[in-house]
Amino acid sequence: MAELEKRFDRAEEQKIYEKWEKSGYFKPETNKGKDKGEFSIIMPPLNANGNAHLGHALMVTIEDILIRYNRMIGKETLWLPGTDHAGFETQVVYEKVLEKEGKTRFDYERDTLYQMIWDFTESNKSNIKNQLRALGSSCDWDREKFTLDKDIIETVYKVFKKMYDEGLIYRGNRIINWDPYHQTGFSELEVAHKERKTNLTYIKYQIKGSNSYITVATTRPETMLGDTAIAVNPEDKRYQSLIGEIVILPIINREIPIIADGAVEMEFGTGAVKVTPAHDPLDFEIGERHNLPAIQVIDKNAKMTAEAGKDYEGLHVKKARAKVVETLESLGLVEKVEEITHNAAVCYKCGRDIEPLLSEQWFIKTKDLAKRAIKAVEDGEIKFVSKRFEKIYFNWMENLKDWNISRQIVWGIRIPAWFCECGEIIVSEGDEPKECPKCKSPKLTRDQDTFDTWFSSAQWPYAALDWPNGKDYKKFYPTDVMETAWDILIFWVARMIMMGIYITDNVPFKTVYIHGLIRDSKGQKMSKSKGNVINPMDIIAGYGTDALRFSLVIGNAPGNDLNFDENKIKGNRNFVTKLWNIARFIQMNAPQAKEVSRETFTIADQWILSELETLKETMTKHIEKYELHLAAEALYDFVWYKFADWYVESSKYYLNDHQTTGNTQGVLRYVLSETLKLSHPFMPFVTEAIWQGLELSDKMLIIEEWPQKEYKRDKAASDEFEIIQGLVAKIRNLGLTKDDSHTIQKKELENISPSHIELIANLARIKKINLS
């Protein structure tokens, strides 16, 4: 047996990981035949456009703890890793690479650009894989998936065609969020909002055949060129007599009606609103209800169209806005202008303005899908940890709009749809149709758009398991846990639930574990622009993986954001060192396994074994309830304050007595062995190193069994030892030295055996105790 080094060498982590991986212990087949059931997690796929960050480190730590625990309790445990092509986000990252070379994506043919981005992501995927290994991820790399794998794409195509054939997917001309800079549409969720000051302009519209006017307030005067109505609330008494009247649209001189619609807020502006169905989501809905025409006056480059009139055609919206107001003022049609603060819609990646535009896109009808997804959570088929996130989930699902799933980008899964000149749309499972089924024409044009990355990601749980006939799908679906951050609860989790239930008629997972965001020590969100981003690999290099993992879990309740402080890492590095030093002490003082005799247990033995049984029960309960932070706190308290501070110190006294030496050595090794098993899911590297270094078993710790109840708690002995602890603490507080004696009254020893006086003196680090 080689002697443990003074400190755990972080360089050993890679060697330990390689042993685990080569052993095949990451595979679920490790526990085949144990009949303990199955446990599975499909790893949320990391975006293949960069490196793992601290949020990923938290995700990996939580999932690895659950996987290692379930592997140790004997379940066939599958943790399937993967990466996401992350369509738009990856293309934006790569466009920045091109910018440095003085290029744009429009300088390349579609296939060339696609291959360039593919090569870029392949390099990143390799880096991510190495980072996940460094974090200790015990996932089955032989089952690794990428969202652009051939089988994943085939699944996405099958699902798309099924939904299209069943009328759940349609192609329509609807208002979308359009990004003029990136030249693509977005769903509601991909639009950020930036608070900014703007002008609220009050514009007068003349009522036809009279000298009267109706005034509306707008922040987008340039869109009035596309107005097709004025709307008022039917309950608004100020305007009831005007409903049905005609007004003259300024500048354009088009006649438009005054209509009544309950969606109008009477309290905003004047209570009358201009209706521009082609450039506002609410106006589009009003337009549909009242059969209003939609006149598009802004194009995809955020410039005015010919419909805006020759004086405005070609102007950027901001210049057009100023010119429209100037013209209206010259006509005496501006009643007033107020400065207000409002939330402007911007691109969530670059912060540039979003334009609501009419566009031909692919949409999913979500109403019926949402109903089933809501019911699954209401009925308890899916549980949220923490439960408070159910409210957010329900609120979003109950107000869900049709989902725009097409994107005008190159990188991603191209939509398998073809258009014929006769107007027919042909959707396939990927194979190019030879002719139009309606007119038999062979002249078909494939859709240039790709799927929203969230559409393919929403199918991750069943697609990654090889739905519908794969062995893993049949064995591990639905999975047990989907663990992710709260900021993509709606982007991703809700959509996985909808799609999973629709396709498989079953929930995709049984528990949703939500973790919070990691912020800097001041509570600020980490971002490159703030310069406060921390690379987890730097933390690992400085403090070791186990210190990082333990710091990410302890004190971090599900769903709560975590302020990351390097001092916490230092403290938990000391905790790792404490466990290492306990092991070194035991290796020196109890190098060989000893038979333990229950009949000759010391008071300290009985106390530590009782505490250990409590720890086993406590940690098991907390892990089963996904309270990993509480399990970690219980472990920390036991190792530092009970095992190290009290039992190891007591053992030094008993090891000097030949009558108790053997038993004490046996208990030391037993308690260490059980403690390492309990610690392993949280701190896998140092525990495995100790396990092998002390030759505690001929098996690797990763496949050892989770500790079971073995000793009955001895309450009387525990109570007695706690009295001893109290006396020791009192004496230590006196500041006596090892050469001093101390006198205590006999009544202080009423509830403990006099035979423990020498132990008390030893623990108090004094020469002798006298009785008065």
TrEMBL record:
Whether Ligase counts among this entry's keywords is: yes
| Predominant location | cytoplasm
Where does the sequence pass through the membrane? Answer: none
For this UniProt record, the keywords arranged alphabetically read as follows: Aminoacyl-tRNA synthetase, ATP-binding, Coiled coil, Cytoplasm, Ligase, Nucleotide-binding, Protein biosynthesis
* Residues covered by the Aminoacyl-tRNA synthetase class Ia domain: 15-564
Q: GO: which molecular function terms?
A: aminoacyl-tRNA deacylase activity; ATP binding; valine-tRNA ligase activity
Q: Domain description from the entry?
A: ValRS has two distinct active sites: one for aminoacylation and one for editing. The misactivated threonine is translocated from the active site to the editing site.
Per UniProt, subunit arrangement is: Monomer.
Would you tell me the protein name for this molecule? Answer: Valine--tRNA ligase
Q: What is the lineage of its organism?
A: Bacteria, Bacteria division CPR2
